[in-house]
Amino acid sequence: MTRNAVFQGFWINRYRNFPNAWILTLSDGWALIFQLAFGLYILYAGDRLWACLRRWSIQGIHLSDIADTIEPPEDGDNLELQPRSSDDDIDNPVPSAQEQTGSRRLRDADFSMGEAIEAFIGLGQSNPRVQMLRDECTPRLLRKIASTAVLVCLLMIVLAPLLPWLLSERGNKRPLVVSKYTPDCGAGPLAPISIQALAYRISASNAERLFLRCSAQEKRPTMDKITEQCPEDALAGPLPPIKYRQVECPFSPGSCPRNHSGLTLDRYLRPTVLGYNSISPLTLQHRLACAPLNLTRYTIPTSKFSDQHVAALMAFHSPYKDLDEGAIMNYMSSTHTLNGPNQASSDFSGWDGSYFNANWGRNMEYIMLPAELPTNVSEFEDISPRLYHKDGTSFVFLFYPGKTVFHPGFYLDTGKITDPIFSATRNFGRVTLLPDHEATALACVEKYRFCYSFSRCSSWIPSLLDDFFTESNSGLHLSPRLGGNRAYLTEEFTKHRHLLALYQSLYKHSSVARYLSCNPKFILAESGHNGRLAFMIHETKQWQHEVRAWFQTAYILARSELHESIVKFRGHDNTRPALENNRKFCSSLLFYDSDYTNFNAFGFTLFISVVSIPIIWDWSTKHTPWTEWWSLARMLPEKIQDWCNFISLILQMIFLLGKDLVSMPFLFASRRFPSPASFLRDAARPVSPSAQASIV
Length: 696
What we know:
The protein is built from 20 helices and 23 strands. The protein has 696 residues and is α+β, with helices and mostly antiparallel strands. A hairpin with a 5-residue loop joins strand 13 and strand 14.
């Protein structure tokens, strides 16, 4: 993961609700500094809160500084007011000059929370401010100040680490980040595919492994229990849901076996489900329809007196392209069969133990037709006319089990496999079965179209066009090959031009036909294949599970390639002019990255406003001018030292309290100390005025 491809700063996640939509993304190093700074700010706010509460406590307990508070009589406006005597009101005496001076000293003294607690518990004899608190405060005032200090301290100690942790998505170590524009990204995504075949096959194999890791079961995944969440960096969200249904054979009548229907899968690729930061309702619909083939209608004998036949699935007399004799011979040598299933085959179908002399004696062999990654659309137009679809791309997947024997999954516990592709009814040992056919075939047709709000859609287009955008000498037009009059789709593309690059990348890489041309295999059957044995084959629906696995893996490949093309430069040819707003396309991809930390920007703003209230209160009370910032900065080391002393005091109190709890039974047993009840009574007993005078 390159740090240059991740945006750091404030951004909006378009498909989250309001409180969680505003996000601040920082690298882990800056995030740590940010959390420490926020924690120190909370501690500073706690210190200012303590200063305000300290002054409020002193003003609430001490009497007024005004010595003359005698109210004038109602009928004596011209009477001369005399100062109050200390004997006028015993319950509300006039404060003496010493008490007034002490009140001012307490309000002006900047004693810390630790000093207040030390004065209350009797520590800090050498500290003059602690001694002043004992001399000037009554027990009630001292108790109130100390309790306020403890509460403020505990509150700030809890909030200082807790708030940064909550605002960082509860310490999420793998947050969702957004990409940013890089020159490589701006040049690459819209260029034609120029990746070498080996590199593309590696990407397809990685997508297969990623799909298997996203499966729910540990050993043998099936499509019945595939998780929707795929925890990988390349996937920013759950796999989009698939709508699948049983349909009639999508090809000419008689092409599919009897009593076997086809399967159609649909996926609606909206920006929000793709992990793309856009709320546009424009959707790319991807459809794949597959069905097993009855090879009887597609095989011809290679000689009159031979059991060898060729699966005639290609139209060699296509009006679009002339195949030479060498291409025809290569095709026939790769698709021939020994014994059916077809009308001219031998009566015995399946393995009879003579595989050493068979041409297809290998295990689990696959052939994709057309076999190579297409460079021209006409290659897929060479398919048999019975399979050809004008609005889609048709392809055939041939399967040769070879020496492989199947282990049924016991889903129905029938003792045989009736799946048309993995058909096996002859026992080979106690729990394994021999395949009934030397070759079986699965045919599919794939197509795409655009939809607006799932209701208004364009016409279908094949999956392997060279480009679904119309182009001219000046570059790309705004409109893809929508077919017909689709003004509302063109208008949507005009408003969200960056979606052209998004759907161009998905169109090129999400094709199942393109994926199988690089990685031809049954994914689930191969994952349970060991030597000659294929484990846990579903007895009736294995081919349907395989088709769904193809569909999911092709999407993972497309999502991974999209991620790679934006985050990492993949060496695309820069032969075509890029769209002028590729910058927005490259800065809208969402993905997971463990090197960054996200903060809830809205929550941060809210909490920083609340935490700042004590600071504003303190400034408004003290009328601190802006010119005193330097003096406040000079006080910072002293405040830090006060907090360190306070923490040391708390630890010392805990140690002394534990020590006293251990020794308390022995002290009470010696009877040299008063009981706790008598001690509390003496402490609560009021001090007489004469005793107070003697103390003063």
